[in-house]
Amino acid sequence: MADPSTYRPAPGEIPDQPGVYRFRDPSGRVIYVGKAKSLRSRLNSYFQDVAGLHPRTQQMVTTASSVQWTVVGTEVEALALEYSWIKEFDPRFNVKYRDDKSYPYLAVTLADEFPRVQVMRGAKRPGTRYFGPYAHAWAIRETVDLLLRVFPVRTCSAGVFKRAHQQGRPCLLGYIDKCSAPCVGRISEDDHHRLAQDFCDFMAGDTSRFTRRLTQRMKEAAAELDYEQAARLRDDIATLQRATERNAVVLADGTDADVFALAGDELEAAVQVFHVRDGRIRGQRGWVVEKVEDLDDADLVEHLLQQVYGADGDADAGAVPREVLVPVLPHDVVQVQDWLAGLRGSRVQVRVPQRGDKRELAATVLKNAEHALMLHRTRRAGDLTSRSQALREIQEALGLESAPLRIECYDVSHNQGTYQSASMVVFEDGLARKSEYRLFNVRGPAGDGAADDTAAMHEVITRRFRRYLADRADSADLDLGFGGQDDDEPVSGPVEWTPTGGSTERPRRFAYPPNLVVVDGGPPQVAAAAAALAELGIDDVALCGLAKRLEEVWLPGDDYPVILQRSSEGLYLLQRLRDEAHRFAITAHRKRRSKGMTASVLDDVPGLGPARQKALLRRFGSVKRLRAASVEEIASVPGMGERTAAAVVAALASGEGATSAAPAAGQEVPTDLAVAVSAESAEPGPDARPEATAAAGPAGMLAT
Prior knowledge:
Elements: E1 19-24, E2 30-36, H1 39-46, H2 55-63, E3 66-71, H3 75-89, E4 97-99, E5 105-108, E6 117-120, E7 129-131, H4 137-147, H5 158-167, H6 172-175, H7 189-203, H8 207-223, H9 227-245, E8 257-264, E9 268-277, E10 280-290, H10 297-315, E11 323-325, H11 333-344, E12 349-351, H12 356-379, H13 383-398, E13 406-415, E14 418-428, E15 431-432, E16 438-441, H14 453-477, E17 493-494, E18 516-520, H15 523-535, E19 542-546, E20 553-554, H16 569-596, E21 598-599, H17 610-620, H18 623-627, H19 631-635, H20 642-654, E22 675-676, E23 701-702
Parallel strand pairs: 3-17, 8-11, 11-12, 13-18, 16-23, 18-19
Antiparallel strand pairs: 1-2, 1-3, 4-10, 5-6, 5-7, 8-9, 9-10, 13-14, 14-15, 14-16, 19-20, 21-22
Helix pairs in contact: 3-11, 8-9, 10-11, 13-16, 14-15
Main location: cytoplasm
GO molecular function: hydrolase activity
Subcellular location: Cytoplasm
């Protein structure tokens, strides 16, 4: 642990102006970001007697080795820059609001050629209009099923849409008039876009316009004695009314507000929000947060508003309502209101409801927050304690100076030496950090793979830490506040800020070393990893291996393993690391093997790359239809020329009589799209354990 006095800035060096500051650890990683009206008074508060600080603040200042700051013009700029840096660096000591579940949204993909209505979860995509969130996906589907009668927008997937277009026959929804069938040309692209926009306008609360329009058309049809059309329009009006009535009116018409409530204790807090649009509850959302900072409720509310509207504001300014009702006002409520007004483009009021319907609704939201916190405690009872205990047990068992807050685990997967793949998974504070997972294709000295598992492990560890050394050197070359006496640690001082609000630096993917490296295997794999680290001159990273047979932990050079109790939290954490690394590695291996066992007959055509192949299959649907096409028809495809079209015709003609090799066991290969080029590796290899068949997490990047 570092002594804060060793990196305290000199007296008078810190400016007495508003700004944003960040603490870094010895590796240069940002561990905390904060803002202040006066940088001098705020930063000086961190360098008082450590014993007088809050325990969480003590841990932060003793983990850090430097503090840097940026002076800005106004407190609103400080608020925006603080959120920008928290989003960019993801500091481990900043409070983070996590969704207590993945809420579904009703999404309309307006950026598509023919917009689609669907249920979506996860990160928001550009060009898509979102409504919600909803508590249940079935609530979205019931609403959509009602509205498709009036707004028959496309709801089918891309595969169904493409198949219907090729066959010239719509799906069932097209026959029962719940889809306008753009796949077969029943509606033009522009008309379908207008239909999707009307759907969005209705979901946004503009319901009376469509009711009035349908009522007028119903009266006109009745006057012309077209009673069948009038009856259909009457039913459409009733459908819209039922869809509108599903959202109960809780506030006066025209009220747009988000109502927040907060319930918690010293360690955790639960937040709930009701989204009220046009007086009706349009959605509900919840978060659970661990209080890693010494914050009061006002600070928590401010951080919450930053995260909610900062993320949504990038995609849709309409996400910020006219009124934000909170349980406690933020300390800098005027600056928060100005920031929200900048996102919305008009005035936004942040206040605490005092009386009437809004206060009653806030009480209802508070009950939901209390219930969510109770469920969270029930599901994760002891989780914080067990993670801390696991890290402490690993520290004691391996004789480490401090708890391994960042652990990386490596595994190699192959099938009799073919398609060798390796994985790197990362756990921080005992939790998986999937955004930092990485995959390696094992090359070997000759480019055809490593000789055995130990050689593969040696290559993977070498490549990972060679990149670490290179990225650390590149980061030091940039003027990022590095440049102490040994030129490899960050120092305290001011840093620049670009006018766009971003940082002048770019985080390096491999610039941060782990506290502990775990390899899947026994003494041979550990020895190979230790040799790789020694060759690179890295001696400050702990290393161990976890053998599968008896779950013993091996250290480099030891003749006997370290035995952890089977019921210990430390062993359980190491097992989770090993199993996650195995799952990630074998998923990548199987993907490479499946791709290598099939090949398209178009692969050998000169000048025909993946993009052109997709364009051809998109136009003709299959190789069988492509084989029947003429040179002129193929050349008419965008991106194709007559010479390439002639080469395609020649290649398909020469391969017409070829037969497909037998596919691997359990594989189905369409004979008109691909032929199997190899039946080897049909049987699963020794590391193809059935428990590792789950899909990989967020895609890790291929390391070079």
